Amino acid sequence: MTSVSPGGTIGILGGGQLGRMLAMAAARLGLRTHIYCDHPGPACDVATHTTIGAFDDMTAVTTFARAVDVVTYEFENVPLATAAAAETCSPLRPATKALEVAQDRLTEKTFVAGLGLPVAPFAAVASEADLARAIAETGVPAILKTRRLGYDGKGQAPVSSPGEARAAWTAIGGAAAILEGRIAFASEVSVLVVRAMDGAIAYYDIPRNTHSGGILRRSIVPSSLPCADADQARDIARGIAEALDYVGVLAVEMFHLPGTAAPLVVNEIAPRVHNSGHWTLDACAVSQFENHIRAVAGWPLGATTRHSDAEMDNLIGPEANDWAALAAEPGACLHLYGKNEAREGRKMGHVTRVRVRTGTPS
Amino acid sequence: MTSVSPGGTIGILGGGQLGRMLAMAAARLGLRTHIYCDHPGPACDVATHTTIGAFDDMTAVTTFARAVDVVTYEFENVPLATAAAAETCSPLRPATKALEVAQDRLTEKTFVAGLGLPVAPFAAVASEADLARAIAETGVPAILKTRRLGYDGKGQAPVSSPGEARAAWTAIGGAAAILEGRIAFASEVSVLVVRAMDGAIAYYDIPRNTHSGGILRRSIVPSSLPCADADQARDIARGIAEALDYVGVLAVEMFHLPGTAAPLVVNEIAPRVHNSGHWTLDACAVSQFENHIRAVAGWPLGATTRHSDAEMDNLIGPEANDWAALAAEPGACLHLYGKNEAREGRKMGHVTRVRVRTGTPS
């Protein structure tokens, strides 16, 4: 097992806010960072080194990978060829398998279901003609999603009745898709699990998440999830992490259907640090970002213990313009990502409101 | 009052670990940093921009200061001419007065005593011939310290009896000095106070500090200081901060003599974030580093509330080689500064052991 000593360099594919917070976590541990991204992003301001290059510029990618001690990534849509090229020069953690599974919704659902874990009913949709058959399989209401490159609600269209099939197909641009039966869930939660190179596993307390327009708005801990359900959620996440021989932080988003035979249903997985774990920066001894860095560097995991209750709200688009009021709010931990332009729907920062821990862990 | 908006740049004179942790705190708030230092240091790895230049290269200093929105510093021995040059181009916070006072031990003691605040007996020593008179004034045991450029126990020599005067004078290199009567203190504490541009003040809980060989080894909160003494300690620190019209984090080191007429005696002040406040990174909602940045950026102060008890130990020289064992210790928050060479006496990092808060604040 190759571990990276203090003074070594973590290479990060991607230059967004997740890369930024990973770079800061690495710096706490005396590690340097080298960002590879195709345009200057928030991570570049705090990284030790940056390479701006196209993800299909394999010469630039391999030069980058040779300059670092390990390569990780902050977004799941890293092209597989890019990851493979990097891996010829440096260890890649998490491994390519996690990317393969996570960047195609059909592969992901098939993989999770293949582990015997509960997922929503789903069917492949390769063409408009497929849709009627798929609707018959999943039932309605359902949601049509492109297999690839969807995020934050993009590339998705609802299908409430068979008559809406054509409109949905047009809305997603007629790309290879998956139809998923809608689940009547009570709430959404996510398990943030971290797995070390030696297979050691740790979990953060499970947040309850609220989305709006497909974008995460809020994560709250404790989640009030019953203990038995929380145990089951962790078991599901562990099953996925182990099946992927995963190293690093993995987020598994789940629907909660309390009191049913399968109270936790996997929605999607993200092979990276996750927005629903941002509260760990302010409410835990060691954040998700530091634990991801520890794991990919081959270090022991840090304590995931939560010392405070927390509510994390994303600051989306112009909401970040309220920074002065948020900075003045007692107990509010403000995080801004240094993005210049507060475009609609763009994650500009987040605020975590912490208070002395009262609830039981979930 | 000029405040720096997110996306703006904080200029920091000095590139050591304090600058590094300030830069990371600025990044949390969406602020960029620009380090000015005379050789590459730990802060450069995480800063957005770095200028390497001599502190007496006024062209480089003013070019740097023009490129940023506010200038602050991470060490008190910034030459006054450098600070003055920077201030012609950008606001300097804290202002030059704090540097003037803090970089000369005689000026500092005279200033604090002039505020009516308790200090150890002291006398100026301009020459070896002065020493006998000074010893008569302060009594023995005493300690001879150079007026300027001493830190971490350097430039100091004990004087246990008048016969040791010549040896002490030689030991400190015969520079302009101050003789300070030794105080029979029970413990050492420090007040970390932060003052905003509008005069708002906040305090962190007061740590009890242990030194060895003139270097801080450990800071513990809560300190078990009696409440009345803690109040007095805060009042002393506020008096100094207000007299300096201070903006930012100020550390005031004090001796504690419980049950005496003057239970708190000022030892020295540091016009900057301070090693005895490193635990605030892991035990408080908003760290000393973030609050310094908030203050100098003209932002409202953040909550200094402590959510956990904490023991901070410095990792000095080869102690940092134990990083792997420390990383594996549950509840230990490890911080390494990215310094390449673990030289004797060099602060390489620190570890803060946190546990759920049990004590009363001090």
SSE topology:
The structure is a homodimer of 362-residue chains.
Chain A (H helix, E strand, L loop, with lengths): L8 E5 L3 H12 L3 E6 L11 E4 L5 H9 L3 E4 L6 H8 L8 H7 L2 H10 L7 E4 L4 H9 L3 E5 L9 E4 L5 H7 L5 E5 L5 E9 L5 E3 L4 E5 L2 E7 L5 H17 L4 E9 L7 E7 L9 H4 L4 H9 L11 E9 L6 H5 L4 E5 L10 E10 L6
Parallel strand pairs in A: 1-2, 1-4, 2-3
Antiparallel strand pairs in A: 5-8, 6-7, 6-8, 9-10, 9-11, 9-13, 11-12, 12-15, 13-14, 15-17, 16-17
Helix pairs in contact in A: 1-10, 2-3
Verbal overview:
2 copies of one chain form a homodimer. The first copy, chain A, is of the alpha+beta class and 362 residues long. Chain A folds into 3 domains: 9-92, Rossmann fold, CATH 3.40.50; 121-181, ATP-grasp fold, A domain (Dna Ligase, domain 1); 187-356, ATP-grasp fold, B domain (D-amino Acid Aminotransferase, Chain A, domain 1, 2-Layer Sandwich). Chain A is 27% helix and 28% strand. Chain A contains 11 helices and 17 strands. In chain A, the strands form 3 sheets. In chain A, strands 9, 10, 11, 12, 13, 14, 15, 16 and 17 form a 9-stranded antiparallel beta sheet that branches. A 4-stranded parallel beta sheet of chain A has the order 3-2-1-4, with helices on both faces. In chain A, strands 5-8-6-7 form a 4-stranded antiparallel beta sheet, sandwiched between helices. In chain A, α2 (58-66) packs across α3. The longest helix of chain A is centred in the middle third of the chain and has 17 residues, at 227-243. At the A-B interface, α1, α11, β16 and β17 of A face α1, α11, β16 and β17 of B.
